Amino acid sequence: MTDRKPLGMSYESWIDQQITEAAERGDFDNLPGTGKALPPGADDEDWWFRDYLEREEVSADAALPLPLLLRKEADTLDATVHDLPTEEKVRAAVADLNRRITESWRLPAQPGLFVRKVDPEPVVAGWLATRPAPPPPEEPPAPVPVPWWRRLFTQPG
């Protein structure tokens, strides 16, 4: 623990004196990062947050307001529904997004952040355009002709 600051000395000069004495004692020798340049972008006020996201491998989307998250999801909806197997599931995905958009309207949000509902018809049309055309219906096999002798000896009805 350091001594108390003398009464007649300013904080700045007392702190400078403490740092100088610690450097002379070698307290700052062999510290990790000694002599290295500061990382680029360290002057950003959110550097610690960006560093945390990178270190923990977390997406920055978690920090976005809900309307922006929903806008982003609406923008990527075509890619999201691309792998869905049926039109009903595509419509269900659009309905779920529209339900969450409607719920977001009820929550207070920052001014200027508004999300419109997604029209399902263009999404379904885009999904159908990526699907291969259905195979043509197979024609039923032609009836096998019955030989004359079978017609002769079989009873009708």
From TrEMBL:
Residues 14-81 form the DnaJ homologue subfamily C member 28 conserved domain. It comes from the Bacteria. Residues 23-42 are annotated as: Disordered. Pfam families: DJC28_CD. This is DnaJ homologue subfamily C member 28 conserved domain-containing protein.
